[in-house]
UniProtKB/TrEMBL annotation:
Keywords: DNA recombination, DNA-binding, Transposable element, Transposition. This is Mutator family transposase. It comes from the Bacteria. One of its GO terms (biological process) is DNA transposition. Required for the transposition of the insertion element. It comes from Acetivibrio clariflavus (strain DSM 19732 / NBRC 101661 / EBR45) (Clostridium clariflavum). Belongs to the transposase mutator family. InterPro entries: Transposase_mutator. The keyword Metal-binding does not apply. GO terms for molecular function: DNA binding; transposase activity.
Amino acid sequence: MSTLSKEHIKQLVRENNFQSVSDVNAYLKDIFKDIIQELLEAELEAELGYAKDDVANKNTDNSRNGYTPKKIKSEFGEIDIQVPRDRKGEFQPKIIPKYQRNVSGIEEKVIALYARGMSTRDISQQIEELYGFSLSPEMVSKITDRIAPEIKEWQQRPLEPIYSFIFMDAIHYKVKDEGRITNRAAYVVLGVTIDGYKDILGIWIGDNESSKFWLGVLNDLKNRGVQDVLIFCVDGLTGLKEAINAAYPKSEVQRCIIHQLRNSFKYVPYKDLKAFSNDFKEVYHAINEEIALEKLYELKEKWGKEYPFAIRSWENNWDVISPFFKFPEEIRKIIYTTNIIEGLHRQFRKVTKTKTIFPTDSSLEKILYLASMNVVKKWTQRYKNWDRVLSQLVIQYPGRLEEYI
């Protein structure tokens, strides 16, 4: 498409005496309307095979039959056009199909604004300010509802047969349910493929977080094709380890070290917290499990009488803490914390912070899905030093990765 020369633009400005941006928009709106009208006329001419003023070359028993007025929504606001008709009613315009009344891509814009956390009322107001036509909050909601089939398809899509790591955590919201405000959990699963790339495997809306619901999520993953997971990285929810073992008995479960530390620190008063946390570094920085246990027992000797519960949780959960110690630094950085999924939750909170209560589960699901799509677009790079990570995993889990590499 050719562009206007500077001289042509200067001439347009002189001839139209533009005084403001509104003047420019009004001019462009008129031009846009004229172009659409000419395109419609050209389409009918091609359909009939003769020009409007060239009846002598007419070679059809069909003919023009006036116009039908139509109001369309465009990026320049609402525009009135005249759609030409033919006598037989066979003409089907392509530039603006028969039932289309929106040529602005407005739906995509509404969904993009919704994905950024704007309320339906704010979106309605912004559309009116930008494009000069009214779009009610109810219509905004209906537009965003149109992505429901897309969400369903995404939530049911086939997954990889094996994942190196899977992170699981829930984020909590308030949702209306038959007039009552209830607490709901969005169960989020994030996977790392054997190629080292992150992906959100799904989001499930349910009651307050429970291991029973997580078991249903894990079974859903199996039904979508996930046959094996090397390591699940999770927080300390009661019964979660047992749920994972029931669904994926070969998988290792790694408790988030950061969650474990926070759980210990809540038993220690502020006056001893710095010294206690410094001593604990000796445990989770140990070069192997044997040294880590030695350091834990030294810690118990020093602090165990004063703060027994702070130590006991490490002893009671050692089976889901200890897998961490057999790995080198590259893998430890990945699995010692569920920060990766907490970072995703921070992105969710950015777009949901203006919504203290959601009207339905589906409205919550919509915004979390749209936010997820925006996040996943940015996950274009795999984990650093992934070749070394994969080499370690192949050795640590013999026979489970080879057929997929």
